[in-house]
Amino acid sequence: MSKDHILTLSCPDRRGIVHAVTGVLAQNDMTVLDLQQFSDPDLSKFFMRVHFGHADDTRHLDAPFQELAQDLKMDYEIVPKSHKPKVLIMVSKIGHCLNDLLYRQKSQQLQIDIPLIVSNHPEFESLAKSYGIAFHHLPVTKDSKAEQEGQILDLVKQHNVDLIVLARYMQVLSPKLCEAMSGKIINIHHSFLPSFKGAKPYHQAYDRGVKIIGASAHFVTADLDEGPIIEQRTARVDHSMSPKELVDEGSNLESQCLAAAVKWWSERRVFLNGHRTVVF
C-alpha cells in the first residue's frame, strides 16, 4: 500500500477521458487497481478517482499529466494512498462527535492526523490531553470574533491543516473564514433537513411528533447550514420516545454521519460539484 497512489481529477466532460488517463498510467507501467467515474449531464462535468500502483514516487508522471491536463482543461492531484491529511477539530460544549472522531483516529478507523483541537469553551481540554493532542481554548464574543478567527487561521497555517471539522462547534463562522477555507470545512447538522434550527432541535422534533430524525454532514459556506451535503443518516422514531431518547438516537446518528464524511474526504472520495457533491 505504501507504493499505491490516488489520482483525483475533474474537467469538462468529453469523449475519451478514461482512455486518455488510463493510457498515461499504462504507458508508465502503472496498474489501475480501482477506478470510479461520473459524468454530470447537467453541468457537463466529469469526475474520476483512480487508485493505482505501484511506484516509490510519481515524479515521472508529472510531465504527461500536465500535458493531458492542458489538453482536457483538467484539475488533478496525485497523492500517496498512505497520506494522512491533517485535521483541526473545533467543538463547543457537546462532545459526542469529538469523542467519536478521536477514538476512530486512535483505533486507525480514520486515517487522519489530528494535531490540535480548538474550542470556545475549556470543557474538553482533559479529553484532548488524554489523546496527546494540543488543546487551544479560544473564547469568542461578538466583539472578539474577528480576532478569534484570525487565531484559528494562524493555527491552520502553523500546523499545515488540510481540513477543519466542526464537531458541534456552536458558533457561526464569518464569510471571511468560510472563504479562506472554502471546500475545507465540514460541519455536522443536527437534522436530516434543516427543519428545526436553533436551540433544542430534538425537543422541537418531539413537539411536532416526527417519525424520522437524522443528521447531515456538509461543507460549510457563508450560507448557514446550506452547504453541499456529503452524507446523511436517518432513524425511525415513534410516539413512545422521550426527548432524551431522541437526543441519544440523534447523537449516534451525528457521530456516524460525521465520521463517514471525514473518512470519505480523507480517502479523496468527495468532490465539490457546484451546490452538490460527488461521493465515490
General description of the model:
The protein is of the alpha/beta class and 280 residues long. It has eight helices and 13 strands. It folds into two domains: 5-80, 2-Layer Sandwich (Alpha-Beta Plaits); 86-279, Formyl transferase, N-terminal domain (Rossmann fold). It has helices spanning 17-27, 62-72, 96-106, 125-130, 145-158, 175-180, 201-208, 243-266; strands at residues 5-12, 31-40, 45-53, 75-80, 86-91, 113-119, 134-137, 163-166, 185-189, 212-219, 229-236, 270-273, 276-279. The strands form three sheets. A seven-stranded mixed beta sheet has the order 7-6-5-8-9-10-11. It has a four-stranded antiparallel beta sheet with strand order 2-3-1-4, covered by helices on one side. Helix 1 (17-27) packs antiparallel against helix 2, helix 3 (96-106) crosses helix 8 and helix 7 (201-208) crosses helix 8. The longest helix is centred in the last third of the chain and has 24 residues, at 243-266. The mean pLDDT is 94.
